[in-house]
Specification:
Strand order of the largest sheet: 2-1-10-5-6
Radius of gyration: 15 Å
Strand content: 25-35%
CATH architecture: Alpha-Beta Complex
Distance between the termini: 24 Å
Structural class: alpha+beta
Number of strands: 10
Largest sheet: 5 strands, mixed
Order of helices and strands: HEEHEEHHEEHEEEE
Shape: globular
CATH superfamily: Oxidoreductase, molybdopterin-binding domain
CATH topology: Sulfite Oxidase, Chain A, domain 2
Length: 159
């Protein structure tokens, strides 16, 4: 029951502190400050221009999904070799979970060093309001894969 309640936690109101749970070989909780530091252009941050449903172009910025997975796929959390390529090539599932329990599953082979699938915290230079504070975006993602209000990324690793 506790796990169900945690998966269905409400997204924090705009302007309040938030965090992101990463689970796999280990469990990490990234604070808003840690995520924002990682999303800086001088660190792991990337930008992607994407068209919305109304045809407007927006610039999303955040951290590639594969880099976040690298924090919890094995004992190496950061830096050279943090993303375990061999483990990813062998295959595991990555489950991106929203605050309302909606989830989307990706294969590790799909996200391996793919800088086009990002967990964005900003759109057009501002914090993501509706659908935020974190949103999975990317040019190759379908509308159903663009998870809003992301609260957790879970790696279903082989035993």
């Amino acid at each position: 029951m506790v796990a169900l309640m945690a998966a269905c936690a409400e997204a924090p109101p705009v302007g309040t502190e938030w965090s992101l749970k990463l689970s796999g070989a280990s469990i990490e909780t990234l604070t808003q400050e840690e995520f924002e530091e990682g999303a800086a252009p001088a660190c792991h941050g990337v930008e992607r221009r994407l068209e919305d449903d109304q045809g407007s172009i927006h610039t999303y910025s955040g951290i590639p999904l594969w880099i976040l997975c690298g924090k919890v796929d094995d004992e190496v959390e950061h830096g050279e070799g943090a993303f375990n390529d061999e483990l990813a090539n062998n295959g595991y599932d990555i489950i991106v979970i929203s605050s309302d329990g909606y989830s989307v599953t990706f294969s590790s082979q799909t996200i391996t060093t793919n800088n086009n699938i990002i967990l964005a915290n900003e759109v057009d230079g501002q914090p993501i309001g509706q659908g935020g504070p974190l949103r999975l975006v990317g040019p190759e993602l379908s509308k159903g894969q663009r998870v809003k209000q992301v609260v957790e990324i879970h790696l279903d690793l082989p035993e």
